[in-house]
Automatic annotation (TrEMBL):
Record key words, sorted: Membrane, Transmembrane, Transmembrane helix
Transmembrane helix is among the record's keywords: yes
Transmembrane intervals: 6-33
Keyword Transmembrane helix in annotation: yes
Record's protein name: CAZy families GT2 protein
Length: 50
């Protein structure tokens, strides 16, 4: 009994893998830009209540 693979299966797997890696790096860049945004706002770390 032979196993027959669907034509183009390896191509689809590679495209999905590369797309997943791109999404992961997009998330990392988003976290980095978010931290930069909070630093640029120049808000104090804490506020002393009188």
């Amino acid at each position: 009994m032979e196993i027959q693979l669907v034509a183009g299966l390896s191509t689809v797997c590679i495209i999905l893998f590369v797309g997943g890696i791109q999404l992961m790096f997009l998330g990392i860049i988003g976290k980095y830009i978010g931290k930069i945004f909070t630093e640029v706002k120049h808000r104090p770390i804490y506020i002393i209540k009188e």
